[in-house]
Amino acid sequence: MSKIPEDAIQCLDKGFVRLVDSMGGDEAIVQAARVSYGKGTTKLSQDRGLIRYLMRHRHTTPFEMVEFKFHCKMPIFVARQWVRHRTANINEYSLRYSEARDEFYYPDPEHIQFQSALNKQGRMGDVPDDLKKKVQDYFKEISNRSFEIYSELNTAGVSRELARAILPVNLYTEWYWKNDLHNLLHFVGLRSDSHAQYEIRVFSDAMAESVKAVAPFAWEAYQDYAVSGLRFSKIEQGLLEQNLPERVIDDIIEDVVYQITATLHHNKPRQENEIYPLYQKQNGTDSEADFKLKWDSGEIKTGNVRELREFKEKLLSLKK
Ligand SMILES: Cc1cc2nc3c(=O)[nH]c(=O)nc-3n(C[C@H](O)[C@H](O)[C@H](O)COP(=O)(O)OP(=O)(O)OC[C@H]3O[C@@H](n4cnc5c(N)ncnc54)[C@H](O)[C@@H]3O)c2cc1C
């Protein structure tokens, strides 16, 4: 079983995640998207905008063009959760073929907690030191004893495929795991989430580092739209429509119109006398004097025109 390689990210006490190989990056997403949208984009900022558009609209297949291959070592109970992600290609260390090594996961004291009273699948609260010590001792005792028996059975010539069944699930295993960016982001979304078990979260976080490095725009878009984005159900939208005062929606729309104007001006600078008409063209309703006051405040942010227009449409739909 592998020791922690130099280029790996250590996870837990003896595990790791190592990016072995990757194919493509942000440019591969854009390249694939161009096939469906016709002529390509050229500027880096346009690539970013296109990736953000694809992510926002869940046009997912271009994200499948980027591939990652990892070498990972994790306790079997972590692998048990990990393997539920069915879209990956996996090749695992075989305990039928090779002998198990004496490598078991022992939790750090800080991660030994009580069963959560709020979340049936979680832990919480501080465990007294003597109980922590007992947990650690039990982990060691059962690991050592099971390994002794395993070794004895091996020496007696009992088949490895059977003898291994005596070993507990804190034994480390390792595998090569290959997946595409779309499904890897899905994995990270589920397994880096605070509801996921700590022991798998550290591996997910480690793989996320590779995504950030290989496809930074896709990572940023995923954070903005999938992780931090809010979706409203039909019922929730109904409540918003009923309870959000129109004047509040109008105020937000007004801010959005200013931002669209500022962004258009930023992308293609206009003459001084062209800016107010540009604002009016975006359905801005302020008088020219008020417009100048706000415009000169320097507080208007820029963004992405397409995204801002989509947001404006959503706000307008709440007024119906
Ligand atoms: C916090 C947490 C708690 C969990 N608790 C439990 C639990 O108590 N019990 C339990 O059994 N599991 C549990 N799971 C596992 C969970 O139900 C999923 O099996 C796991 O997260 C993989 O998700 P997935 O199927 O979306 O991913 P993948 O298998 O990677 O699939 C990705 C997507 O591809 C599609 N897909 C893949 N294969 C198929 C298929 N055969 N048919 C149709 N569509 C397919 C689906 O759209 C799927 O979302 C838990 C997961 C998390 C994150």
Give the number of domains: 2
- Coarse morphology: elongated
CATH architecture of the largest domain: 2-Layer Sandwich
Question: Which compounds are bound in this model?
Answer: flavin-adenine dinucleotide
Continuous helix count: 13
Going by helix content, strand content and strand pairing, the class is: alpha+beta
Please give a structural write-up.
With 320 residues, this protein is of the alpha+beta class. The N and C termini lie far apart (63 Å). Helix 2 packs parallel to helix 8. The longest helix has 27 residues. The mean pLDDT is 93. The strands form two sheets. A five-stranded antiparallel beta sheet has the order 1-2-3-7-4. It is built from 13 helices and seven strands. The chain has two domains: 219 residues, Gyrase A, domain 2, CATH 3.30.1360.170; 85 residues, no CATH class. Helices cover 52% and strands 13% of the residues. It is elongated and about 90 Å long. The structure holds flavin-adenine dinucleotide.
Helices and strands in order, then pairings?
Elements: E1 9-11, E2 15-23, H1 26-37, H2 44-56, E3 67-75, H3 76-82, E4 89-92, E5 113-115, E6 123-126, H4 129-155, H5 160-163, E7 172-180, H6 181-191, H7 198-214, H8 216-227, H9 234-243, H10 246-267, H11 272-281, H12 288-296, H13 305-318
The structure holds flavin-adenine dinucleotide.
Summarize the structure.
The protein has helices at residues 26-37, 44-56, 76-82, 129-155, 160-163, 181-191, 198-214, 216-227, 234-243, 246-267, 272-281, 288-296, 305-318; strands spanning 9-11, 15-23, 67-75, 89-92, 113-115, 123-126, 172-180. It is an alpha+beta fold and 320 residues long.
